[in-house]
Amino acid sequence: MKMQKYICLLLVCALGVLAKLEFGCGSIAGGYLHGTCIESEKQALLVFKETLIHNSNYFSSWVGDDCCAWHGIGCDNITNHVTQLELRNGNIGGKIHPSLLNLKYLTHLDLSYNSFDGIQIPEFFGSFKDLIYLNLGHSNFEGSVPHHLGNLSNLQYLDLSEDSLDPKLRMDSIRWLSKLSFAEHLDLSGVNLSRATDWFSSLNMLSTSISVLGLSKCDLPDNIPRRLPFMNLTSLVSFDLSENYLSSSFPLWVLNNTNLAHLYLGYCNFDGLIPESLRSLSALSVLDLTVNSFQGPIPHSITNLTSLSELYFTDNKLSGSISPEMGNLTELTDLSMWLNSFKGSLPETFCQLKKLKSLNVGKNRLTGNIPECIGKLSNLNELILVENSWEGFVTEHHFINLTKLDVLGISSDSELILNTSSEWVPLFQLTYLYMYSFKVGPKFPHWLLTQRKIEALKLLNASISDTIPIDWFLSLFSNSPSVDLSNNDIYGDQLSLISRAPNGLAALILSNNRLSGEFPAFLCNQTTLRTLALSNNNFSGELPQCLRNLTELIELDLMNNSLSGKIPSLGFLGDLQYINLHNNKFQGKFPLSFQNLTWLFVLDVGKNNLSDVLPTWSAEQLPNLKYLILRSNNFYGEIPLQLCQQSTLEVLNFADNQITGNIPACFGNFSAMVTGDISPNHLDYWGSVQMMDSMKGYEQVYTSTLQFLFSIDLSNNKISGEIPKEVMDLQGLLNLNLAGNHITGKIPDEIGKLKNLIFLDLSRNELHGPIPQSLSYLNFLSQLNLSFNDLSGRIPSGNQLQTLNDPSIFAGNELLCGLPILKPCATNTNSHNVKDGHNEGDTGSVSDDELMWFFAALGPGFSVGLLGFFAAFRFSDIGIHTSILVNRFLRK
């Protein structure tokens, strides 16, 4: 009997031990059993709650005597001590009261995803000696991370990560982390470590039990030693070093961690070759090298990393052909080679990657046919093949088993043709479809009309000559779609006949087609519309006042139509950044409501019939305005001095109006034109900004090159007075056109300061005196017109002027002499030659030596002039970049 009692007692003890093992640290209320909490700990929690800012519902369960039953609280099942405090994602802020120190047995503390803005992590957190888990991530703590956390000797999990672009947490040293000898998970992503110069040497001092290490977006100092020891964190499984801009070659020091499965090195500015020694990371499952400057081919050793499931080479400088052995990576689910220089064909072996969900080889130099067997990759939900040089046909067999396809992008700069039967109905329903620079037409393909889930449709330059299928078009609106059908031959007035449509359209881009009729009234109901681009069509009639309903509109592009009437008030559209009404038939006054558009950076109402005094506003009203085009209207009056406050201006075009008065000397305040610094693109929308401006005497369209344009055009007005010397401080100017006015005085001697000038037109004015020799300093000048003034003296020569040998440039100036007009200069005429030996004893004729020197100088000047000519012909990205680089080189 006594033996039975002992056996029963042993069983009870064993059950107690098991209970301790299973529930030892207790559990959060609601998950497992709990006891009655300790009174002092309950009071500590209530004091803690009182100093918080919170939603009362979050703590609605914090009533009654048993705090172990409260939301977020876990207690030990034996002792009833509070061991867990988990208030994750509670939208909690305020102060953290030190009453928590009474929770002496706390092992788990989670305050992540809250809003403790403006407060530091409390130092007393370092006093929780039993703490195993501490998560303070994404809670907006600020200031220095207390080194007292290094006292948490039992800590296994520490997360201090933040997503903020402006990190508020900082650490001047990470050496104290080495005291966390049991740490397994350490995430400092988003903590500012810019002063932690010991970061690299401290890595090898971390616990060898570390399996997850996050150092993303830490602004790590770029002080990696040349001779690097290996990082001997032998248990490391995941290492995130991304977004630190370390400017070195591939970090070979990670290659000793043979258990590494996840390696994130994106956005680090690494360069050089990807090493073959990557083969040592045989367990690698994820390799992310996104946005670096790696060069050369993909190393062959990568094809041996058969555990890889995600591989990202996005946006590097990799080149060469793609190895067919990439087909060995049969575990791949995600592969991105976007924006490199890979060439050759896409290997058929890619069709062996049966687990592939995302394949992106866009923006490379791939050629040949798109493999038809891609249609057998039944797990694909994203297929991006845009901007290569594919050729041949794309048929329904390319999509035969792609039942999960959600994103499809195909384009080519070669002859690629879509060839599907009219009866084909795809097995997929796409959300995003991009088919541009690709012969999809001439009719809207029937299969496209079966796609009812589309949120983004881009059929730009798709050789479509058809009317818009209205029923299908309207059916998309419930998906909040962005629709781009620009650069086709779409015609008809169907859009004008739609009276109402479901609200939801996000972007509508129909530019460069043959659409006609009145402005589509249904657009007034599209209150979610952010981009509306209908330029280069045949729309007519008036713009409705109901456009004011489009309160989310960012871009309005109606250039080159036949719209008439008054411009409606748009001042209620506070998000508008871009307005282009160029070349229509608008009449009346300039809308004063434009001055309410504080985000506006492009305003073009050129080539209309507006009649008004030049508008006046302060820079505070339009602080972002960069491009102001009022040309070819009937604006009159003097240029308001308030305009000079608009220091952000990069393009000012008032040509072909009735403007009088002087050019204000305060034009020198246009600081953007002084520096010539390229402005960032402000727009985040589907369309491409386009703007008309006159260069070389005719209008040109600027799209991607708009950011390179710095221009002042006041031509063909009634402006008088002299050219202010302050204008010569605008060294970023590419174009200065003051032709066709009544400007008097001399050409400023300082004109040579306009180092970037490509076009200069001062013709048809009343300028007198000599042409400044400094004009020859303008190394990029390719178009010059000084005709029909009263200029006198010898025409300067040398450098770039030698390429400008058209006599008509100087016509109508009877007192000019010298080359290229071949009019001899009289004896003792002041010479402006850089290299002239005839200042005294001039014979009065153009000498053989002078002619020989003139034509010989065409050689060295011609190459620079040619660059300027091509820039004049068309401001291509390459041309402008080259021009800027050459200019910087010459300055050096």
UniProtKB/TrEMBL annotation:
Residues 39-76 form the Leucine-rich repeat-containing N-terminal plant-type domain. GO terms for biological process: anatomical structure morphogenesis; defense response; plant organ development; response to other organism. It is a single-pass type I membrane protein. Residues 1-19 form the signal peptide. Gene3D superfamilies: Ribonuclease Inhibitor. InterPro entries: Leu-rich_rpt, Leu-rich_rpt_typical-subtyp, LRR_dom_sf, LRR_N_plant-typ, RLP23-like. One of its GO terms (cellular component) is plasma membrane. Keywords: Cell membrane, Glycoprotein, Leucine-rich repeat, Membrane, Repeat, Signal, Transmembrane, Transmembrane helix. The keyword Nucleotidyltransferase does not apply. It is found in: Cell membrane. The keyword Transmembrane helix applies. Its main location: membrane. SUPFAM superfamilies: L domain-like (SSF52058). The chain crosses the membrane at residues 851-873. Belongs to the RLP family. This is Leucine-rich repeat-containing N-terminal plant-type domain-containing protein.
